[in-house]
Structure formats: C-alpha cells, structure tokens
Amino acid sequence: MTRRPADVQLHTFRTLDEQPALVSACTERWGGVSDPPYNTLNLALHVGDDPEAVMENRRRAAAALGLELDAFVVPEQVHRGAVAVVTVADRGRGAFSTREAVSAADALITRSRGVALAVMLADCVPILLYDPQRAAVGVAHAGWGGTVHHITRNTVAAMKEEFGTDATDVIAAVGPSIGPVSYEVGDEVAEKARAEFPEADIVRPRENGKWLFDLWRSNVIDLTSAGLLETNVYVTGIDTFVSTDRFFSDRRQRPTGRFMTIAALR
Description:
This protein has 7 helices and 14 strands. Helices cover 23% and strands 23% of the residues. The longest helix has 14 residues, at 51-64. By secondary structure, the protein is of the alpha+beta class.
C-alpha cells in the first residue's frame, strides 16, 4: 500500500545553515508519491520508477527548498574524478531528462546565483563545499570509485583554478552516506583504497575475508590535504545503511530510490 504523502523532509547542515547566501540540504525519503520499493520521495529517473512520479517528487523537493525545478543541474555521475563548471546557461540540465544531464561528471561547481547543483545518492557520499569569500559553491558525489579518483580533492582544486578560491575559506559538509562500520568491500577495492590513501587507516579487515572501507575519513583526508581547515569540515555521521527509515540505501534495499544533495547561491 502506498504511504500517504507527507511534507518533504530536509536534512540540513549546521555549518552551512549559518550562511545566509546559501541554500543547501539533503532530501530525506518521505513526502513523495512513488510506490514501493521507491517509496516515497525517489528523485532518480534511472532506477525503474514511474517517470511521472519522479517528476512530481522533484517538483516537491524543489519547492521545499524555495527553488524552481528548472534551476536544477544534475550530472551523469560515472564514479570517476571529473568536475564540471556550471553557469546559468546550464539551468535545467538533467532536471527533466537523464539525456540532458551534465555528461561524465561527478561534481559540479558554480558562482552563478539561482543555479541549484544536485547529486543523487543512496549510500555514496555527498560533499558540499562553500566559499563565502568568492561566493562559490560545489557539490560532489563520492562512491568508492569517486573517492579513489579523489573527486573531493579535485573539486576543491577546480574551485581554486576557476574562481580563485582560497581553501582555508571553504566550509565543507560530508552528508548522509554509508558509514565505516557498514561499507563492506572486496580485495580489489580495498587494494585501490590503500594505494590512494597509503598513510591512512581507512580499510579494516573483517572475519569473513572482506574489508570495511571508511569513505567518510577518506574524503575528509582529501579535504584537509586540499587545504581546508579541519574546523571547517563537518561530518554528518548518518549511516544510510542503518537509517533506511530516513534515507535510501542501495546496499540495504536494492532496488530502491535516490535522494538528492542540493546547493544553490541565493
């Protein structure tokens, strides 16, 4: 039976809530119209859900943030390290069709006001970056592939190159995603993780022969190695794998929906 739609719930970030020029949040999973297993606020067009339901959900999510859906820009998300620069000319890309998404990118950055950067997630790590001095913002999607390709570090580097951002000014939030006690991987992923983060204890063995990969710590390392101050990095600490009452988890409930992490300059 379809859950009765309720108000859209948004998870916001304490460090970014204090920034009056920024709109930012993660959507939670309720308040939409999608039927199970996508119930109810699935925002992805590529997971098998009814496209009409997804579009209604996207309109509801946009309205909850005080935005129009045609302001959204969504990347293709290929689990690599590419960052795309977005302007007002890109408004609407990926908002209404996957064919129009920003191709082969896992992070978006902009200085354009009224453009909503959005990435889709269901365990991967969302990273929000805000430079209040240059009025610039970035959003990154970091699964294990993006993490070992240093998408987060690349996003900071792109903001430096494109906007003149000083990393010590940047405020970052690491959003809801699969946690270090839940993310189990095999030997190949564990080896790649150790190779890219050789000085960090981010991979731990399990008794079943698998490994636990700490995506949160890995991306925090990338942020601080890019020059961010530790005091400016906020980790939400919500594990989507054990919080399916609030967020979608592809590892826990496949098939399932996707939530969005969104940021826009007012």
